[in-house]
Amino acid sequence: MDFAPYQDTAPEHERALSPPPPPPRRSSSRSPVATSPQLNRSSTDPFSTSALPPPSHFGGSAAGFGGPDVEGGRLNVNLFETSLPIRLDYEAMLAYLLLPPAGGVILLVMEHKSDYVRFHAWQSSLLFAVVFIIHLVFSFSKVISWLLFVGDLLLIGFLSLHAYRDADTLDRFEVPFFGRIASSFVDDE
Prior knowledge:
6 helices; mainly alpha; elongated
């Protein structure tokens, strides 16, 4: 029975055989001496590199495991690829560093490939639009305005640091309430 359809011959013909057992020794008073078996390096040795078939033997295609992608036309999908000529982690940081919420809106318009960057752009736009409205409401008090401004800077630094660090694993750091909305927007696109 041949369960591997990609093999030309049955594996029993190419399998490395164990060395034959040594002939039985006659008992003697001396202790047995341990000897290592002789290695027989022949052309049927499965561990020699010359016995391995070339990679084209298995698929005949350079596209991967058996041919093109199921969806067709998406052979070069890269989760870390962006529309802009900027690295993914820098682009996600820019969603918070480019005058929020305007930077998020600019990235939403210009970025079409990376869901990670679009999530941070949505989150930045939603969160800092509400923060801007809060600033307008409390603009009568200088103390509250300055406290909100310092809070904004800390929030921008915290979120941009998370966007930069989590870009390696594409984890999304979600701010309560706004993060879930941003995720649903990106997932629905």
